[in-house]
Amino acid sequence: MIDFLYNKIALPLLTYFFKNFSKNKEKFLERERIVEESWAGLKQYPHLKKRVLIHSASMGEFEQIKPIIEELKSRNPSLYIICSFFSPSGLNNAKNYKFADKLCYLPIDTKDNMERFVQSINPDIAIIVRYEIWRNFIKSLFHKHIPIILVNATMPTNNFFRTCFLPRQYLYQTLSMLTVILTAGSRHTNFFDGLHLKYTEVRTLTDTRFDRIVKYIKDINQTDVLDPNIFADDEIKIVAGSTWAPDEEILIKAVANVRKALDVKIRVIYVPHEPTEENLDNLCAKLGPHVLYSKLIQCYSKYTVSDLKEKINSRDFVIDKIGILLCLYSFADIAYIGGAFGDGIHSVTEAAVYGIPIISGPKLEKSTDAKNLTKNKALKTINNAKELEDWLKLLIVNKEYRKDLGRIAKEYVYNSAGSSKIVTDKIIKYLYDNSNTK
Prior knowledge:
By secondary structure, this protein is an alpha/beta fold. The protein has helices spanning 2-20, 25-39, 59-75, 88-93, 111-121, 135-143, 159-163, 165-175, 186-194, 209-219, 245-262, 277-286, 293-299, 305-311, 325-328, 349-352, 368-375, 385-397, 399-416, 419-431, and strands at 51-56, 80-85, 102-105, 125-129, 148-153, 180-183, 201-204, 236-243, 266-272, 290-292, 316-318, 334-337, 358-360, 379-381. It has 20 helices and 14 strands.
């Protein structure tokens, strides 16, 4: 019943939607042009090394699994790591990642596609990140007796999958073929336990992305992004990460009022979630004195640091480059995280790890970390510009209170780190377990 509904109705409809109506249909068509080419040649290579297949939907999930890949390689450099993706953004961003031996696309989840894919990859173990529960993919691995571990597992955000009979049956039957489910927290474990999976081990961990973040800041070099000496000692720096128009409008108004009320130097570093030309133009049109990041970098070769510092005095920055937000938080005294006036708040942990207080809009439902930081008072939600203005005044005037909230935020991240080693131990166990034969 489940196989019929999935293969004859759900999967064809989903594929048709991706090809014709999805906002990312161009990306989908891009991957379909080269999907088989990306993995077809793997079967030709002799199976001399242990092969680990790691599947991530896109770039965000791949970032979460990097600590595990690097831990695996450090323990056994001869492992052959194959990383598959559904989204072109995931594969394209991983092209320069030195710890992956092969990158490829996961095909559309038909039975024939997946049987050929698994036969070509021929993995000794398969790792799936977070929620990529493709039924025929998992069945093909299961029928070849390949151990399957789901890492950073989270329960579905949609009530349809959590409460309706047929979706729960789909999850029950599919997840029952997994070897181990390692969850990203106890509330997720409760959901998987509620499915009553008979032969699948379910264990509570924390999200491995905490390890990635902690490792990143240990290796970070600020001068790769900005010279710290261009900032004045007495200025307050606010990094506004992953912002949308509603966030920016509130910030601009609140910061202007705080500047007048306190007569204090405040520099806001705006990092739009989608730095398209249109979005950047709209933001810049609303700001007072500001400088684009791309223009600022060009000035490095024209001016000394002291001259540049004087020229950009009190100017806000607008970041027109992607991929540097995590480093930019290292300059901040306060972080504002965008998205919480729309679909939901973006990641808060990248700011929290630096020990700075966080502010956002009110919609935190999709982020366990944001809700936990709110309980700890390290994150403050605001509903309008006046509330943001009042909170900024308090944080700026009371430096010790600001530091205390930052310390709580940092402790949250560091206390949550450490799962990558446990996950790696589990992978190694099944990878070299002689009872697992293909």
